[in-house]
Amino acid sequence: MKLWAGRFSKEVDGRVNDFNSSISFDSRMYRQDIAGSIAHATMLGEQNIIAPSESETIIKGLKSILSDLDSGKLAFDPEAEDIHMFIEAELTTRIGDAGKRLHTARSRNDQVALDIRLYLREAAEGLISQVKELIHSLCNQAEQHTETVMPGYTHLQRAQPITFGHHLMAYCQMLLRDISRLEDAKNRMNVMPLGSCALAGTTYPLNRERVAELLGFSSVTMNSLDGVSDRDFCIELAGAISILMMHLSRLSEEIILWCSWEFKFIELDDAFATGSSIMPQKKNPDITELVRGKTGRVYGDLNTLLTMMKGLPLAYNKDMQEDKEAVFDAVDTASLCLKTMIPMIDTMKPIPANMRWAAAKGFINATDAADYLARKGVPFRDAYKITGTLVAQCIEKDTTLEELPLEDYKALCVEFEEDIYQAISLETCVKGRTVVGGPAPERVKEQIAAVRAAISEE
Ligand code: ARG
After folding, report:
1. Tens digits of residue pLDDT in 93-112
2. Domain region containing 298
3. The total number of structural domains that make up the chain
4. 214, part of any domain
5. The pairing of beta strand 219-220 with beta strand 191-192
6. 112 lines ligand 1 (CB under 6 A)
7. pTM for the complete prediction?
8. Is the CB of 83 under 6 A from ligand 1?
């Protein structure tokens, strides 16, 4: 029998019941639901809206349900409409009439708005600490490779010399922004909706601030219609997670490239790669491919939420029940990806010799050769043209700027001297890029220190 059965003359059709029910995916909010109910009952008792003794009985009952659910002694009833109904019905079974008073001045509409906020607030915290762990792993790898020269790319063409450490630290900057977005989402959702009731608030003398205080919210929602129909916080969190996934996916894509024989800049640990059922030589970077693939899935979750909300009149509509599977999937997917990527990054082995070899091949010091002439007073545009001609000559002779004889340099520009070789050595090129944010080893060490400080704050 439904808790709302009074108005109805028939039992709900079994198919409607299955279609309508959300217990299969909202049961994961049972702790939040119980915490919300305990806070609500506490306040109802304090305000004498229900007798303090009944409030105590309710709280005791809720605590016993919590411990039985935690221990597995009590199982969720798949026939229940949702987690809110399940717990309320169970409470009444356990404590009798007092249980029926819990829902005074409350609706499932504000209850669910509360539960999701509580759940996602914690989920955001969990993701933030996982992102910090990933940053930590990247910093540790970067620290080992502040002098490891590799080509930096644009258009996936070798462009200018950088170091592997500098490259990894770029991801730390993205991840720091992800943390700040997750924190923003968490702070903005930290508003307590109970008291909005179904949509129009209540005539009972609630103390909403007290409930907010009991549950650790920083404020209460200011409009009862918005309090129950706002799902911005789900969308914001899914948005922040989507951007995070985009970053994980870009890193994954690079790792996939770096593992290939065409690059071979890194070797993944055997425990973090997989084989082929037919090709015995294969060692595949499946984890990173899955992260790249799952990114699309999370974007789908964000789209589900945005589309689900776009046409809804105020206030609550049942469409909004679809919010949970989408936002939970985004959280679960990102968390799973991070959990697997962190040890993969920790254990991957960079191969500096291959990076150095690739760096020597792509004329990535051509800009430095042009800068050399510009420093000697040749206008940069002329210097650029002269160096371009030198590169063309090297390609024709199948050689590199480092190996081209000085006569060939001098034939194009008399300003070239023996010290050109020093000026275009890749090590000089990297070490000279001491601009703030640049790849010079001391600058990268500063980046690492700054990033580590940023994640240990709070
Ligand atoms: N299971 C519902 C949900 O997830 C709870 C709120 C239901 N409210 C209602 N009036 N039907 O959105």
Report:
1. 999 999 999 999 999 999 99
2. 109-186+224-357
3. 3
4. no
5. parallel
6. yes
7. 0.94
8. no
